[in-house]
Amino acid sequence: MAAPLPVPPGGSRGRRARRPSGDDRERAILATAEELLGRRALADISVDDLARGAGISRPTFYFYFPSKDAVVLALLDRVVEEARASRAAALRRAGDDVRAGWRGALEAVRDTFLAHRALTTAAASLLPTSVEVRALWSQVMEQFVAETAAAIEGERARGAAPPGPPARDLAVALNWMDERVIHATATGTTPALAEDDLLDVLLTVWLRTVYGGDGPAAAPG
Amino acid sequence: MAAPLPVPPGGSRGRRARRPSGDDRERAILATAEELLGRRALADISVDDLARGAGISRPTFYFYFPSKDAVVLALLDRVVEEARASRAAALRRAGDDVRAGWRGALEAVRDTFLAHRALTTAAASLLPTSVEVRALWSQVMEQFVAETAAAIEGERARGAAPPGPPARDLAVALNWMDERVIHATATGTTPALAEDDLLDVLLTVWLRTVYGGDGPAAAPG
DNA sequence: ACGGTACTCGACACCCTGTCGAGTTGGTCG
DNA sequence: CGACCAACTCGACAGGGTGTCGAGTACCGT
């Protein structure tokens, strides 16, 4: 018996209980969604499409998910978890080397989201409308920001980084930059960076922001 | 069979011709949209709401705009123009002082978009679905990026800024950062910066990125 | 064999969009 | 003045999507 779902506070999204055959259906819906998202935009996919693809009727779909959005949210949950794990592994690997840690973390996140462009795009399209997606995303960004801020403070404490605006503020700016640039690149929004330049460019901004001073004063007018 | 549409390249979108009374209606629709966006999300506003608000029937609405999105696009057009103008003025005011120019430009853009939060949010919610909104936004960002890149190259040429990644790549990253952080702040998305800190923090990242070196080498691994 | 729970779906009520065609109005011209 | 035409208006319709309800069916443990 798969336990009654160890859903953390914030409540279960999805269906009520677990049953053998039902699990397959749920997976089929998820798989169909992933597959269709590879072809068209979320807005062009109806609940009926999802249901048909999973071999069930539309009303039955609602037994498994409360809405189309909930399916994307479930998918996003998985990808976010993957990103988190892969990023954490990179940080662990880098040990005390903060710069290497940032490089590895950025690489991990970039790879995860580029590998799931379709989902990334769909999730982005839900941000304006879905509180749940927004909450999940906020939570992820919040974690990244907190970790970044802590690292910056560490570098400042050991004298490696100069003082400046609150570490958290810099962390907020840098992490949103990463998010947006990766997103633009993943979806082909112009202007964007070439995929191969992402890491180098973003990392340069991070390092200069954290370690660089403000340079020489402006030239007299 | 779409009508010939005498639309000059990139020109006015909206209805076909000009007539006295019709202009009032068009304005009424725009005004209603702006007003309603102050209360609820775009997705919760129907064409009927817009029509009623403007004192016309739903079919009549379609005489003036091809869709709800087109109304937002028209509104966005105005705000973007305002941002452009105000930004250009700031740059002009700063003359040769590149740093002052960036500060003024950022301030102008920030003020414009914070002053139109509702519209900003609505436009953002259309980005995933509307090609037109995407195109308009891309065009704006492209202009900002091009100008930024040119300025960076100028600073490098006169020896004020150190070399590094292509100026354009840095410009892309920095401008998307501004966009995203301003947006997060305007919509209350967490994590975000306090409105009063926006300018200082973003400008610090810009200056350090453009003028700062990469700091001392990493601690030996 | 029986009762319950998981699951299924046809049918329905709604809401929204976009269009069509039959008007109405107001300015212009013979 | 009247007749015309373009601008404008809207009732009615068709179509497509969502979410729900209630009447089933399948399978479990007892």
From TrEMBL, chains A, B:
<dbReference type="InterPro" id="IPR049397">
    <property type="entry name" value="EthR_C"/>
</dbReference>
<feature type="domain" description="HTH tetR-type">
    <location>
        <begin position="23"/>
        <end position="83"/>
    </location>
</feature>
<keyword id="KW-0804">Transcription</keyword>
<feature type="region of interest" description="Disordered">
    <location>
        <begin position="1"/>
        <end position="25"/>
    </location>
</feature>
<dbReference type="InterPro" id="IPR001647">
    <property type="entry name" value="HTH_TetR"/>
</dbReference>
<dbReference type="Pfam" id="PF00440">
    <property type="entry name" value="TetR_N"/>
</dbReference>
<dbReference type="InterPro" id="IPR050109">
    <property type="entry name" value="HTH-type_TetR-like_transc_reg"/>
</dbReference>
<protein>
    <submittedName>
        <fullName>Transcriptional regulator, TetR family</fullName>
    </submittedName>
</protein>
<keyword id="KW-0805">Transcription regulation</keyword>
<dbReference type="GO" id="GO:0000976">
    <property type="term" value="F:transcription cis-regulatory region binding"/>
</dbReference>
<keyword id="KW-0238">DNA-binding</keyword>
<dbReference type="InterPro" id="IPR036271">
    <property type="entry name" value="Tet_transcr_reg_TetR-rel_C_sf"/>
</dbReference>
<dbReference type="Pfam" id="PF21313">
    <property type="entry name" value="EthR_C"/>
</dbReference>
<dbReference type="InterPro" id="IPR009057">
    <property type="entry name" value="Homeodomain-like_sf"/>
</dbReference>
<dbReference type="GO" id="GO:0045892">
    <property type="term" value="P:negative regulation of DNA-templated transcription"/>
</dbReference>
<dbReference type="GO" id="GO:0003700">
    <property type="term" value="F:DNA-binding transcription factor activity"/>
</dbReference>
<feature type="DNA-binding region" description="H-T-H motif">
    <location>
        <begin position="46"/>
        <end position="65"/>
    </location>
</feature>
